[in-house]
Write a structure and sequence with these properties.
Strand content: 15-25%
CATH class: Alpha Beta
Helix content: 25-40%
Number of helices: 3
CATH superfamily: Ribosomal protein L30/S12
Distance between the termini: 17 Å
Structural class: alpha+beta
Shape: globular
């Protein structure tokens, strides 16, 4: 798995330097958006917006709405 879901987990992984990009839903709750944006700005992590929560969940193969997805940095081979 090259991604993680859940605001709390995404913020923790950003702070550990493991996330390169976060994709958030257009309708993410403002409180969650602020938490992610604050951590992303502090650690220079790119944020993108992509569809609503249901669409974002579907794009990553989940059958439920997802507000945010954090993508891990690629391992150096």
């Amino acid at each position: 798995m090259n991604f993680i879901i859940g605001t709390r987990e995404i913020v923790k992984k950003i702070e550990k330097g493991l996330i390169e990009k976060v994709v958030i839903a257009e309708n993410i709750p403002e409180k969650l958006k602020e938490k992610i944006e604050t951590a992303a700005k502090k650690y220079n992590v790119k944020i993108e917006t992509d569809g609503n929560e249901r669409q974002l969940g579907t794009k990553i193969g989940k059958s439920f709405p997802v507000a945010s997805v954090g993508y891990y940095k690629k391992e150096d081979s």
